[in-house]
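Backbone geometry:
***
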Amino acid sequence: MSEVVFGAIMPHPPILVPEVGRERIKEAKNSRIALESVAKTLTAKSFDTLVIITPHGEVGRASVPVYTSRVFEGNFGQFGASKPNFYFKGDTELGHNVMKDCSFAASCPETLLDHGCLVPLYYPDKAGLKKPILPIAIAFLPLNKLFEFGKSLAKTAARLDRKIAVIASADMSHRLTPDAPAGFDPRGKEFDEKLVQLVKHNDVQGILNFDPVLADAAGQDALWSIAILLGALDGTSVIPNVLSYEGPFGVGYMVAEYAPNC
């Protein structure tokens, strides 16, 4: 069996957290249902550590930040919901070994989790999943380089005999509508449609070689974390499944899972 037992792409808008979104979460019903489905699948899996890759937080430039704290915490206070508070145990051993095995990984001592981590973790936590986590922030490196980091991550987990699940925290275009948070660009929809199809067909090279001009026009923060996830899954026979896609607030949300075909 592969060391990576499950992979997922999960969006990170705080509005998908009921304590933040309140009544407006009904406008993203499909995403909520899909996130609950992923959470249910995760709780049924047997693994040791949940790796969460965030495009926010301590984002790197020349190296990939690996969070090495023994404990993590956070809440959605900055989004109007100071409760609930979240606490997670960190997998320090895995984190230090990831850095040991990858020349362009760097230690990050941060203990407070950003919404790029907390939103995807919310639903598994609510479903009762209690596993150590290893948060990793993306770096603004070429996608092929991030793919290599993902491969190294999986090799490290295998060396430690550590079964892991990997979540790529990823919002898609932020420019789908005139009232979108990053303004409007008609190419935002084109980006989202193309990326959804690439994920559905497990077209790894298509994602790694995604048109950077189109990606920039879309105002996305998805490709970096997805590249790491795909690297971690490299060499594993997986069945991708896009559970939902919608853009109710001018930002594209895709929920997808990669189940190793073992």
